Amino acid sequence: GAKLLLHGLCSNTTVKTLDLKGNNLRTMGAEALGRLLRQNKSIRSLILEWNSLGVWEEGFSFFCEGLGANSILQRLDLRNNQISHQGAGELAMALKQNASLQELDLRWNNIGLLGGRALLNCLHSNKTLKRLELAGNNVPSDILKAVEQAMNHNQDRQTILNETQNRTSILTKEVLSLKDEKTKQFLDLMDTIDKQREEIVRSGRMSAARASQLQEALDEQHSVMNSLRAKLQMTEAALALSEQKVHDLGELLNATKQEQASMAERHFTELQQHKQEGADREDKLLRDLSAASDKNLLLRNQVDELEKKCKVQQDQLFQVKQDLTNTTAELKLRAVQAEERLEMEKRRFKQSLEDMESLRLKEVDHMAQHIEASERSMQDRIQRLEAIRIALEEELSRVKAAALTERGQAEEELIKVRTQARLEEQQRLEHLEEKLRLMTESRDEAQNCCLKQKQVVAEAHAKANQLSLHADGLRRRLEELQQDLNSKEEEKVTEVNKVKVELQEQIGHLQAERTAQEGLREKIAALERQLKALSSNHREALLDKESEISMLLEKLRMKEADISRMREEEAQRASFLQNAIMAYVQGSPLGTHGSRK
Q1: pLDDT single digits (tens) 396-426
Q2: Which helix (H) or strand (E) holds 77?
Q3: Is residue 265 within a helix (H) or strand (E), and if so which, with residue range?
C-alpha cells in the first residue's frame, strides 16, 4: 500500500506536506520513498517518525540517494527509526549533495560517535541546513556543540544571504526606477528641444514669407511706377508731336498768307493783260479751289483727331490718378497688417519664453527634490554594487555621446539655416541689381526714343523743305495762270476775301487749340509734381520696410542667441548632474571601499 501511494505521489504537484509516521515501512517502502524524492517537485515537509528505516540498510541507502538528488524538500523528520552510524554516514553523503534541506530531526536513533563525526564533517560542505536535532543518539557533547555552532553559522549565513538578496532586489528596483526617470527626463528634454526647433523653424518661415510678401509689394510698386513713367513718356512724346505739327501748320499758314498777298499784287497787275485767257482757264481754277477746299477739310479732320487724342490723354491721366490713390491705400493697409502681425509675433514669442522659463524652473525643482530623496534613500542601502555603478557610468557616457551628437546636429542645422538666410539675402541683392540694370536699360531706351523722335523731326523738316519746293512749283504755275485771271479780277477778289475769312477762322481755331494745349501742359506739370511726391512717399515706405526687415533679422539673431544660451544651460545642467552622481558614488561606502582597494 505504501508503494502504491508513493508511486502515485511521484507525479503529484499539489501535496506539500507528507506525514507517514508509525507505518512500519520496510525495504520496499524506503525504495519507494527514494523514488518519490527523486521525481516529486512539490513536497516540502516529510515526516517519517517511528518507521525503523535504519534497520533496512539497502532500502535506507536508496532513500539517502533520493534525498541527495532532491532539490525541493526543506524539512525531514526521522525520529525513532533505528538509524546506526552507517546510516548516519549515508545521510552525511546525501546532505553533501542536497542544497535545499533546512531542518533535519534525528532524535532517538543509534548514530553514536562515528555517525556524529560524519554528520559534522558533512556540515562543512552543506550551507543550507539550519537545524539538526541529535538528542538521544549517544553523541558526545563536544560534537553536539560543534554541530550547534555549524547550525548557527549556517543560520547567520542564510540570514545574510536573504538580506543581501532583498537589498539587491530593492536596489535593482531603485536603479530601474532611476533609469526610467532619467529616460523620461531625457525624453522631456528632447521634446522641449524639438518644440523649440519647430517654433524657430515656424518663425523663420513666417519671417521669410513676410519678407517675400514685402518684396512682392515693392516689385508691384516698382512695376506701377515704371508703367506710369512709360505712360508719361508716351504722352510727352505725343504732345511734342502735336506741338511740332501745330508749329508746322502755323508756318505753312504764314507762308501761304505771304504767298497770297504777293500773288494778289501780281494778279492785280497781270489780270488786265490776261482777261481773254482767264475764260478758258476758269474750269481749272474751279478745280484747284475744290482741291483747296478738300485740303481744308482734311486739316479740320486732323484737328478733330488731335482733340480726341487730347481727351483720351486726359482720361488716361485721370485713370493714372485713381491707380495711384488705390496703390497708396493698399500700401497703408498692408503696413497696418504687417504691424499687427509683428505685435502678434511679439506676444507669442514672449508667451513661449515665459512658458519655457516656468518649465525649466519646475524641472530644476523636481530634479533637486529627486536628488535629495535619492541621496537619503541610497545612503543606507547601497553596498557591494560596483558593477551597477560601472553600468551607470557607461550609460551616462552614452547619454553624453548622444547629447553631443544631437548638439552637433543642431549646430549643423543652425549653420544651414544661416547659410540659407545669407543665400537669400544675396539673391535679393542680385534681384535688386537686376532691377537697377533694367532701369538703366529703360533709361537708355528712352534716350534712344528721344533720338528717334529727333530723327522724325529732322525728317519733318525735310518734308517741309520738299513742301516749300512744291510751293515754288505752284508759284510758277500761278505765274503762268496770271495771264488767264485778268477777266475774273472782281470774282477772284471776292473769293480771296472769302478764303481770308476762312483762314482767319482756322487761325482762331488753332489759337484755341494752342491755349487748350497750354492748359494740358500745366496739367501734365501738376501730374509730374504729384508723381514726384508719390515717388518720395514710396521711397519713404521702402525705407520703412527695410527698417522692418532689419528689425526682423535682429529678432532672429536674438532668438538664435536665446537658443544657444538655453543649450549651454542644458549642457551645464547635464554636467552638474553627472558631477553630482560621480560625487555621490565616490562618497558612498561602495566608492570608499573601491578606492581603498
Answers
A1: 777 777 767 777 776 787 788 778 877 887 8
A2: strand 75-77
A3: helix 141-270
Does residue 91 lie in a domain region? yes
Q: Supply the CATH number for residue 107's domain.
A: 3.80.10.10
Give me the DSSP letters along 406-440.
HHHHHHHHHHHHHHHHHHHHHHHHHHHHHHHHHHH
pLDDT tens-digit map of 127-156: 889 899 999 998 999 999 999 999 999 888
Domain contains 33: yes
Q: How far apart are CA 536 and CA 526, in angstroms?
A: 15
The C-alpha atoms of residue 5 and residue 18 are separated, in whole angstroms, by: 11
Closest by Cα among 135, 134, 52, 122 to 91: 122
The per-residue pLDDT for 592 is 45
Query: Containing domain of residue 63, as a range?
Result: 1-139
Reported pTM: 0.35
Neighbouring C-beta atoms of residue 89, cutoff 10 Å: 20
Nearest CA among 595, 559, 216, 246 for reference residue 417: 559
Q: What is the mean pLDDT of residues 293-302?
A: 74
- Average pLDDT over all residues of the chain: 80
Angle between helices 141-270 and 386-481 (to 10 degrees): 0
Contact 72, 46 (CB under 8 A): no
d(CA 295, CA 430): 58
Q: Evaluate whether residue 218 is within a structural domain.
A: no
Q: Closest Cα to residue 483, out of 268, 273, 264?
A: 273
Our count of domains for the chain comes to 1
561 domain residue, yes or no: no
pLDDT at 249 over 90: no
